[in-house]
Amino acid sequence: MTRGPVLTRRHVLRALSGGGAALAVVGGAGAVQAQGLEITRHTRALPGLRSPLRVAFLTDLHYGLYVGAGQVRRWIDATHDTRPDVILLGGDLLDLRVQDMPPPLLRELARLGAPLGVYSVWGNHDYGSIGQYASRYYGPVRADWPARQAQVARDLQAVGVTVLRNRGVALRDDVHVGGVDDLWNGVPDVRAALAGAGERATILVSHNPDVLPALPMGAGLVLSGHTHGGQIRVPLLGAPMVPSAFGQRYAMGWVQGAHATPAYVSRGLGTSGVPLRNLCSPEVAVLTLHPRD
Q1: Which uninterrupted H or E stretch holds 284?
Q2: pLDDT tens for residues 23-34?
Q3: Which of 48, 78, 99, 222 could disulfide-link to 201, CB 3.0 to 4.6 Å?
Q4: DSSP letters along 260-276, please?
Q5: In order of start, what are the domains of the chain with their CATH numbers?
Q6: Tens digit of pLDDT for each residue in 219-234?
Q7: Are 246 and 210 in contact (CB under 8 A)?
Q8: Which residues are CB-neighbours of 34 under 8 A, at least 6 positions away?
């Protein structure tokens, strides 16, 4: 699988240099926008559902270089105000090299609560944070990265966050949630994530939306993050850089995958590469799903 472009400080500043958007971002507007938050609300029918379900979807927290516990606390407080039935996390919780989960982040994640539980998947930055790949920021590859990943999953489970790595769970008699491994650094298995769903409504969580064109089977709904909506968007042009093999096709919002599968790609919450956003505010997506008429 060929990776899409990775957003870096150099790419962003080069793309924006000389334009009005660059002046706004460099002048501080981009930093201010990165600290904002929008609760986006969506209503959609979900085949197989017998009663309404409210889902809060948070993705790309990127706790580490640019995001601290205080910012995560604000996001969690805002999420609780929406009174979701279930909370789904779309990966990239971490953005720093770790031995175990950072205690400040764990304390905030422990505050997450919903009647049907809290579930997460792995993202590419989670893999970098545990040492699966090397980078200038994360450091060298760690031979013990599988053990680190297992420990992080245990740390999350201890505070009530269940990682779904190519597996799923029945939230209720009428709804199944499955999560797949990261596309870039893991081995996503959609069939395994949706195995056992039967006639239940299905929600599939994939950190990276680039799984959509090659879905081996349909799902009722796919939720993804990863792209940050491009993070830096320019009027009339959109995002100069999107970390996707498909350009702006899956940058953000409602899109469609194989088998006419509807998908929502969140703009995410944190930042990567640069601590800036422009015309692309951080987002918690709240989806009110209801039975098909």
Answers
A1: strand 283-290
A2: 444 447 888 899
A3: 48
A4: GEEEEE---SS-SSSS-
A5: 43-210+225-290 (3.60.21)
A6: 999 999 999 999 999 9
A7: yes
A8: 66, 271, 275, 276, 277, 282
